Amino acid sequence: MQYHPEQAARIDVCVDALASFTSADQCSVELRNVCPDSKDHFPEETLIYAKQILKEIHSPELVDSLETKCRSSRQRRIDEGKDSLGFIGHIDEGDTFLTTESYDVCLRATAAWIECVNIVLNGLCTYSFALTRPPGHHATSTLPNGFCLFNFAAAAAVHASTQDKCKKITIVDWDVHYGQGTADIIQNYENIRYVSTHQVPAFPYCGEQRGIRGQYKNLMTVPIQPESSWHCGFRELFTEKVLPFCSSPDWKPDLVIVSAGYDALDSDDLASCSLQAKDYNTMTKMLRQHVGDEVKIMFGLEGGYQLQPGKAGGNLQDAFIETIKALQL
């Protein structure tokens, strides 16, 4: 398979950066590896529940078809004496692809986002971050799209809405692309809000009108012009549009879920905005201050594809660490 920006190295560089950061005694972070061969792997009942949530936010046919396609292809390779991991094919014009492990990887990613919700709601940690891939916010209720197979942010929010201590949830999406999948799903939930900042024009070529919409008035689109930087475009809209919709006197969320994409970086080739890594530190601190210490916050990785070291303004791992820095008490 040829190079694809949505690659395993995205997680590797973030984990390595986090290890370096914590080894320097700059913060206290508990890192859990939920891969099948790790001590922290998810029990079967957790994965069964994650599948149930996926079937609530997506059509059951979509979930079942992806499971069948991936697992049957894996078994066929095994029967043929090949390595179990293999490329299956593309879903949408070369952007979104499947391997024999895609379903199980995305099922564990869903469980990881759900577990991060549980961690903060149960007071085990002040904040949590689901460092998973692929991204999820483009996956609609019926369609994988834009590197995304299942919608993890929507799954986490819907799970949170079932908890007695969580009556209202806000999803803040600062990925540079509009999460039309999250909007498609969340529009049906009166107790969940979704607000997105995103470059226009850019994939998925919607969400171009600023404003509030949906039958429950729970969706807000905040389009950003190309070449916008923190001091020219982002800061004003984040302060005046995103934060008030996230939390206000008439909408006090119990939980904020951040769809943390880092592809608005100046160095990222998948868009043309001009944020610097340190700007994510600023946004995180502003979000914390705005919602207050009583509101729980979890983060989950969406986009962010510039991995090369030394890039002007920073890369994915730099922006990720800046977010972690902003969460230190």
UniProtKB/TrEMBL annotation:
Pfam families linked to this entry: Hist_deacetyl
Domain of life assignment: Eukaryota
GO terms for MF: histone deacetylase activity
A single BP term in Gene Ontology: epigenetic regulation of gene expression
Domain Histone deacetylase: 4-308
Name of the protein described by the UniProt record: Histone deacetylase domain-containing protein
Record-linked CDD domains: HDAC_classII (cd09992)
